[in-house]
Amino acid sequence: MQIEIRSLSYIYNPKTPFGKLALDDISLDVEEGDFFGIIGHTGSGKSTLVSHINALTRVQLKYNKNAVLKVCGIDLCAKKPDVKTLREKVGMVFQYPEYQLFADTVRQDVGFGPKNLGLGEAETEERVRAAVARVGLDYDEIAERSPFELSGGQKRRVAIAGVIAMRPEVLILDEPTAGLDPEGKKELLALFKRLQREACPTVVMVSHNMDEVAECCNKVAVMNEGKIAGVFSPRELFTRRELIKGMGMEMPSVTELAYYLAEGGVPVDPSCLTESELVDGLLNIYSGGDK
Amino acid sequence: MNIISVKNAVYVYNSGLEDEVMALRGVSFDVEQGEFISLIGSNGSGKSTLARLLNGLYLPDEGEVIVNGKSTLTAKHKDMFDIRRTVGVVFQNPDNQMVASIIEDDVAFGPENLGLPSAEIKERVEWALDRVGMSEYRKGTPFRLSGGQKQRIAIAGVLALMPRVMILDESTAMLDPRGRKEVMDTVRRIREKEGMTVIMITHFPDEAALADRVIALSEGRVVIDADAHRALSDVETLRQYGLDAPLCTRVAYELRKRGVELDGNIITDRELREKLCRSK
Predict the structure, then answer these.
(1) Does the pLDDT of residue A77 top 90, yes or no?
(2) Which residues, including other chains, have CB under 8 Å from residue A54's CB and lie 6 or more apart?
(3) Per-residue pLDDT tens digits for A205-226
(4) Which end of chain A has the lower number of beta carbons within 10 A, N or C?
(5) What is the largest CA-CA distance in chain A?
(6) Nearest to B152 by CA among B170, B175, B133, B126
(7) Among candidates A260, A276, A286 on the partner chain, residue whose Cβ is nearest the Cβ of B269
């Protein structure tokens, strides 16, 4: 088990009038090989949850007497958890990671993490080179340029390369494609899928974009008001339209279109998740009848 | 008369340096009062540069941009002031557009700078907040709002200047689906009630489908300029420029390709449903 969570709670501003229970008795398992989606409306606790996974938010031991939080074998409910090892194993890509670029050159920026692991020049260099190539950029062309003069999509890739250069076992993505154009989104999702296959077998992705969740994830946890409302496969999940809508979320656009067509009298199965499934469903009805 | 006229506009970043980038390579189009235009194009196609040219934030290196009869290139102080009053811009990041700690002060910032009498400022602020459906929040602080609500306040701030043209520069890109819907509903309502000219820059083809006319940029040039139905239903041309058609259009395209007869240009879910029901 890569991530094991039992009965985890978290309170913002405890013992003040602004106290807010952000996580309410959360239990969750993420296994090696999962592309694990976490969805939920704004304010449902998604970011609080994932920031526990690499110990940016520490377990409030006082309110978590019986909680378990183990990530890559490291016990984060311990008095002094081994955070340094944890951060080597868990890579976190924040929302709009390009805002975190800071160095003078792409090479320095991507190399910052490995260097701080105490790696030598040669190994740092090798890791930087490999990470930049992995995100689909040309190292020789880009290495000595300032990250700030790159395009938005390139900046984001450089920021992601900085995380990948740490060679994490678990990759956490918080809204990784927000603000990109459709082409950029597609490329980035393909990149994450490839990364999972080749380098980092466990991925946790927080997303608002149900199209992406339907496309990439094998399991999806739904969060609502600090609780886990359930863990589903995408197909199970998106047949529960009332549940999704009731929690203020959207359906994947393909599924939503299929529902809309079905409600208007087009006899198509609304449970499809991809464009080609919908097209095939419609073809069964329309071309079959003609011939 | 055209409210905006862009004539062969060229814009170059870092002109003369080794990392020179030609963002616009001769762009021309006219905007009539009351039009609703979507401006689409992949990242780096020049959309946002163009938006900044339209209200004189940037000046073209070649060609010209004429707003309300005045060229941004030759506009002196007073004319530039008039251009900025004519064309208001709502930007992408809601957090970068808030200037005051109380919502009604934030919306009043523009009209105050126009030097209007306070009674009129008050009236405009109330009207603008009403138009974006945020009146009940007027004494609150913008910092506690959701992204969609913040963007509606930013729209109110532009509305309060009563511009004749409103440009939305990817104003929904950083919002969650609910926020996107809030902003799009607001834009639609303002269009219906005020008949304002709107130029909406967007990555989302389903948002672009709300406009009457679509202009697509690719590598700094206008590659499509047509009514929305014609522009967005041409799946192959859009793909050629790295752009997507709306989902329903792509589905119709695939169905037609495999022998299902569907007539007309389909760019909304409703059109697809109607066509499918009829051909059953």
Answers:
(1) yes
(2) A71, A86, A87, A90, A92, A172
(3) 999 889 999 999 999 999 999 9
(4) C
(5) 71
(6) B133
(7) A260
Question: SS3 for B124?
Answer: helix
Query: Using CB atoms, which residue from A153, A178, A265 is nearest to B277?
Result: A265
Residues 245-264 of A with CB under 8 A from B: 248-250, 253-254, 257, 260-261, 264
Q: Which stretch of DSSP H or E encloses residue A4?
A: strand A3-12
Which chain B positions have a beta carbon within 8 Å of A152's beta carbon? 43
Residue A108: Cβ within 10 Å count: 16
Q: Which of A41, A153, A283 sits opposite B260 (nearest CB)?
A: A283
Could you tell me the two tokens for B120? 């009129």
CA-closest candidate to residue A218, choices A199, A208, A204: A204
Rounded average pLDDT over B250-274: 93
Give CA–CA dist B121/B103, Å, rounded.
14
Query: % helix / strand / coil in chain B, to the nearest 5?
Result: 45, 25, 35
pTM: predicted TM-score of the whole model, two decimal places: 0.83
- Domains of chain A and any CATH numbers: 3-251 (3.40.50.300), 252-291 (no CATH)
A-B C-beta contacts closer than 8 Å: 91
And the tokens for B121?
Answer: 């400022």
**Across the interface, do A283 and B244 touch by the CB < 8 Å criterion?**
no
B255–A282 CB contact, under 8 Å: yes
- What chain B holds in terms of domains, given with CATH numbers, is 2-245 (3.40.50.300), 246-280 (no CATH)
Q: At what angle do helices A253-263 and A275-290 cross, to 10 degrees?
A: 30
Predicted complex ipTM? 0.81
pLDDT surpassing 80 at residue A289: no
Interface contact flag, B277 A260, Cβ < 8 Å: no
C-alpha A227/C-alpha B43 separation (Å) is 37
Q: Which residues of B touch A289 (CB under 8 A)?
A: 280
Contacts of A42 in chain B (CB under 8 A): 146-147, 176, 178
pLDDT of residue A152: 81
B58-88 b/e (C-beta count within 10 Å ≥ 16 → b)? bbbeebbbbbbebbbeebeeebbebbbbbbb
In this predicted structure, the answer to whether residue A232 has a pLDDT above a threshold of 60 is yes
Q: Which residues have C-beta within 8 Å of that of residue A191, sequence separation ≥ 6?
A: A134, A135, A136, A157, A160
Give start and end residues of each alpha helix (H) in chain B: 47-54, 77-86, 103-113, 118-131, 147-159, 177-194, 205-208, 228-233, 235-240, 247-257, 269-278
CB contacts, 8 Å: A177 with chain B: none
Query: Which tokens sit at B196?
Result: 């304002």
Helices marked H in A16-166: 46-53, 83-89, 106-116, 121-134, 139-142, 152-164
